Every structure is written in C-alpha cells, then in structure tokens.
Amino acid sequence: MATYFTIAQQVFSALNGPANAASSNATEFANGLSNSTTTSSPPSITDLSSLATFLLSFGALADWLKLIVFGGALETLRRMAFSLYYKIIASFWITASFHEEDSSYDWMMVWLSKQSSWETAREVEVSTRSFGLNSSAIIVPGEEDDLSLLSSRKLAYLPSASLSYSMWYHRRYMTVTRVQTQTGYYGQKEERLQINIFTRTHRVLNELLLEAKKEYMAASEHSISIFVSDSNNSWRNVASRPKRNLSSIILDPGVAELLVDDARDFLESKPWYAARGIPFRRGYLLYGAPGSGKTSIISSIAGELALDVYIVSLSRVGLDDSALSELISNLPEKCICLMEDIDCAFSQNLNRDEPSTPADAPGGSEGAPPPPPTAMAAGASTSRISLSGLLNALDGVAAQEGRILYATTNKYTSLDPALCRPGRMDIHVEFKLASRYQAKRLFNQFYLPFDEDAAKKKEAEKATGKAAEDDDSGYNSADEDAVIDLDPTPSEKSDAKPTYFGTSHREHAPQLRPKQIAALAERFAEAIPEREMSMASLQGYLMTYKIRPYEAVRSVKEWVADEREARAKREKAQAAKIKSEAEAAVKTGSENSETVSTDS
Questions:
Q1: Nearest Cα to 350, choosing from 417, 410, 416, 433?
Q2: Does 327 share its domain with 212?
Q3: Same-domain check for residues 205 and 273
Q4: Measuring CA to CA, how many Å separate 126 from each of 3, 137, 152, 159, 182?
Q5: Does residue 112 share a domain with residue 18?
Q6: Considering the entire predicted model, what is its pTM?
Q7: DSSP assignment string, 121-159
Q8: Which pLDDT tens digit goes with each residue over 368-422?
Q9: Is 578 within the bounds of a domain?
C-alpha cells in the first residue's frame, strides 16, 4: 500500500515542480552550499486521509475540483429547468401519430384534404391518391367546371412531406406534420402523420378522430375496401369498389340466400360460440366451373354485410408459412378473407385442362372441371407454403377469430381432405354451369332492370285497386300485344345500313314492353343448352348486344354452335397433347430400361 502511495507522491511532486520552482530556488540559496547535497522529499503517504490531505495541498487541483462541482451543479440545474419547461409546455399540447399502414391514416388524410385551409397554403402536395375511396375527398377549384377533367382521377391538395402546417379546429390551434422516413434494404419510404393540438384534454382529439372516421365511412358507405398484403406482411388498402346488389348475381335458386343468411347468422353469434368454447371462425369453400359466379357472389356478400375484403395471394413472392400465419393473425375481427384458386397454392401450373370427370363421379357434375393429376411434375411447384403451414394459419393457435374465410377452386377433387374438413371449410357450395333458368333471368336483367322501389309502388297500387300501367323497359314499343318477329323484313332504308357488332346508342334500339322482353327471354333460354355454358360466357355474349334484344335472340343458336365447335377443338387438342406426352413418357421409360439392361 505504501509503495503505491509513494509512486503517487512522486508523480504529483513532478507535476507540482514547476509551480514551486521559485520557492525551491530561494530555499536552496538561503541554505547555502552545505545543504546542496541533501534532497528534500514530501511527507510520506501512509493512508487515505494522508492522500486526501496531500491532494488538497495543491492549489491548482483544488481550483479544478471547485470548477467541476460548480459546473456540474450549473449544468444539472439547466437541464432540470429545460425539462420542467418542456413538461409545462407539453402539458398544454396533445400529440397524435398516424402510420401509413393503419386505417386511421386514411381517415385523417381524407379529412385533411377536405379542409379549406389548403386553398391558401403556400406549399402543398398535389395528389390523385384516393386513400381507399373511389375519388379524392376534395377537387381543385375549377375542376368541376370541366366534365372532361372529372372523368379522370381527381386532384387534391395534401400536406407536403416534412413541413409543419398550422390550422384551427374547434377554436383550438393545431399543427400538422407529414413525415417520410426511409426504411428497409431497398429504401422503401414509410409515411407518418403527426398532429399537435393545443389543449389539455383528449376531448378535442376524440372529436377530431370521430369526425374523420364518420366522414370517411360516409364517403365509403356505398363501396367496399379491398386490402392486399405487401412485402412487409402489412395490409394495405389498395382500392375501393362499389357495392354490388345481391339481386344482380344470378345463381341457382337458394344458393345466394344460403350464403348470405349463414354469414349474417355467424356474425351475430359471437356469444354463442364463446359460451360453448368453439373458435369464432367460419369458412366457405366455393368450387365449380370457371365463370360460374364464385368471386362475384363473394363481392356481393361483402357489400350486403358491410365487410372489407382482404385478399391473400398464396402465390405471392416471398410468402412462406410464417408470413402467411402473420397475415392471417393480423386480420381484423370482422372481415372477409379471400383465397382464390386455393388448389394452386402448391403449384404454378396454369394448365387446368385434364381428362374429363364423369358426371356421376363423387364431387363431379355435368360440365364440372376435371380433376387434377395425382402427382405434379417434379420442379413444377415454386410456392414456399406447405400444406401444414396453410392448415395452421387457418385454424392454428395464432389464427384470427371473427373473420369469414372464402376459398375458391376449380378443382375440388385436388384439395386435401384435411383442408376441407369442418372447422376450416364449414360449408361447401358447388357452382355449376348455367341453367336455362339462369339464362332467362340474365336476359331479363339485361333488358329489363329490376327496380325495387318501382316494384313496391306497383304492388301497393295493385293492392289499392289502381290500374298501374306497365313500366317501360327503356325500349319503346308500338303495342304491348304486338307479335314479336325475330326475322322482320328489312326495308329499303335498313338495307342501306351496314352490318354492325357491339353496342350502339340507345336511341337506335327497338323499344319494348316488359311482356315482350319476357317473351324474348323465354326464346333465349330455350336456345341455351342446359349446363353447357358458363354465366360469364352468356354475359359476354349479351354484352355484344347490350341494347339489341332482337339480335341477341336471333343469333344465339349460331353462337351456341360456335362455342361447341371451339370446345371440341380444344378437347381434341388437349387429348392429342396428353397422348403425345404419354407416348414420350413410354419411350423415355423404354430407353431407360434398355440402358439398365445394357449396363447389367
């Protein structure tokens, strides 16, 4: 211990030497030459107290210590003062942040775009973003005067990034800042909206949030929001679609009512599920021929139940089991989760044409799509999702409750039984090719749109005994009881007109009464073969005669013949392809066997 103190003493003596140089020289001169051979040394340091006394004996060190203590105390007081100042200021402000991936961000951006203060702002961002709505919330002044401009996407003023704006809300001072930060390896930008309100309570903030949400919901009252996942496994609102009337979806009797009533009953049965310990989830598997209305009925149900649609693309690049589970768990409680073509989850093979399935085969029907091959070619699958990962995402521990799952497929027999079992897919509904009943309804819907209010009014007039004249279909007719002639003799004037296809202006179309439209619908349905054509193909055909019902009925038989011929050619080509592939496989197998026998 004494050794360390001695070393420290020598160090401080060396440091203190220049400071005491003058006094040492005077002492040496006074003592004379006799004392020049003796060297004076500081008192020895033996303990901590003597070390402290020794340190305090240096005047410069004492000044340093005083400066450190005083400076530290002053800096501490400064920080405390500023901290107290900021706390006092912060007590009069409320700060709210809204992130781009959250729905509240869209609410606030639409609300901000409606504020008149942006008309006088000096720096703004001009945008056509709709934030989940069909059109921006506010248009640029003067744009409404030009109809050609309104036909395109509307413009709106929005806060510029990284700038703060001042405005008033309910006589409260408020600042708005839109911040963009660069995140991720690829430099993706993330937006955040920050709002500061000069108030001491949350009442003003609550009013602002409710007002923004109500305005957004009112703007989207007649539409449904479509969400898709991005590369960061976050849900983003990408589009808004008008709600589709359920009566516009023409299916076999009872199918649409079954799906809507069951889904509505499920949404109202949360206490029932909780009381019995059953997971609050519901799944529907819609299978059948392409173009039979599977996706259309899902969109219509979403509008009927006021639910948003979250599309899960199982073929998305980078989507694996963990990412799929994260997406499903991040779904809101009440929504529709849509997985289209779930049979393609493990294969990217786009060729669905395989040998036909007999009509009496299990799960098959006349005109239904054929089953897939029992085994896929090696290397054909590029999906990173496994069957077990998909099953766990649907009803695993982390699976979201309250959501309604709709899965569609054209290959019902290719699905694993574990995927189709109750609890994952509770209801299976087959969508067949069009029947004559559907063809008749589709024709009536095209040329005699159903008006619910007019129908109720007509029923009321009939109940009161008032004679109600039949509503016009939009196509005038000379006489309701006139005979419908599908092959009228053309006049000299009509001979001069060229033959045309597609749609024409309404004023050139024949004008018919409802009974005449019904008679044409009967003839149209009689010409359609039962369960051979899809509803999509029938709709496509009628679209070419959108306002020409006579021509639609007159040409339908020829169209059916052309469709049958085209289908026969496709089947023949597919059969030839399958035969050639089989012959190639047999040839390859024989060559391999010959090689093995030669080697042996």
A1: 410
A2: no
A3: no
A4: 78, 13, 15, 9, 21
A5: no
A6: 0.69
A7: -SSEEEE---TTSSS-SS--TTGGG-HHHHTSPPPEEEE
A8: 444 444 434 434 445 688 889 999 999 888 788 999 999 999 999 989 999 999 9
A9: no
